[in-house]
Amino acid sequence: MLSIIIPTLNEEKYLPLLLESIKKQDFKDYEVIVADAGSKDKTLEIAKKYNCRIVSGGLPAKGRNEGAKIAKGNVFLFLDAEAILPQGFIKKALLEFRQRELGIASCGLEPITRNKAYRILHDLLYNLPARLLENVFPYASNFILIKKEIHEKIQGFDEEIKLAEDHSYARQAAKIAKFGFLRSVKMNFSPRRFQHKGWLMISMKYYFCNFYNIFFGDVKSNIFRYELKIRKEKKEKSKIEKVILFILKLPLCVIWLMFAFSGWLLVFLIFTPKLIIRYLKKTRNRI
Predict the structure, then answer these.
(1) Per CATH, which fold does 2-286 belong to?
(2) 3-class secondary structure, 257
(3) Under a CB-based contact definition with an 8 Å cutoff, are residues 81 and 22 in contact?
(4) I need a labelling partner for 212 at 20 to 30 A (CA). Which of 28, 144, 160, 205 fits?
(5) φ, ψ (nearest 5 deg) of residue 146
(6) Using one digit for the tens of pLDDT, what is the confidence trace for 204-246?
């Protein structure tokens, strides 16, 4: 059985979309566990409607751990509430997971937006690097597929980590099991965090967090000001306002993109020795 674990807090808008996409899958041997952090809206009502098991949660790490404690499956799938699974997603993901003999896996993410530029940039600035670095510095966000025994051996998610606890979890698991970035599937997700705080601000926060992880380790202080709270919907801007904001932000965006690509280049340079060693070992095994 597959146990799907979803941490929530006031997710009445997004949770039904995820649960409906799970319901439409051609894979049926699963249970859904919602770990709720005290929702004040209709989140729990929606979870009950879809026959989810419900447990008290907290921040994402605690919610996932609490959900895992009551899970019946031998494989766990941790999802964020803004995810939407394409048709046939679970079956394809599990097939590749087993064929590659993985212990933990993540996959590419596709933001749900009409803006093609955002989708292309997300591929270039997250999906591609995450795939290339899967064997030396794993990345796992929004989607984590893991064997129950591996989760238990690493004692679950570190609840002291304030940001990027999912990436840290994957790196700890990769020390004792094979990690893989799945090729056969890509998961859709709502870019609500980017839209609420701004693509520029959120991506900058994640990039600085990434470098902090590389040079200093896990983020256990609140230097990046991560909070789990209710987000009010922003008022839709007029076309004129959008054009003016775009013109004002354009120079800053260009500078940021140059920094982002330079940052990933630095990351690859840091891990080049490990990548070369990995490649040589693979070549020897083939010979």
Answers:
(1) Spore Coat Polysaccharide Biosynthesis Protein SpsA; Chain A (3.90.550)
(2) helix
(3) no
(4) 144
(5) -150, 145
(6) 888 889 989 999 999 998 887 666 554 555 555 566 766 676 6
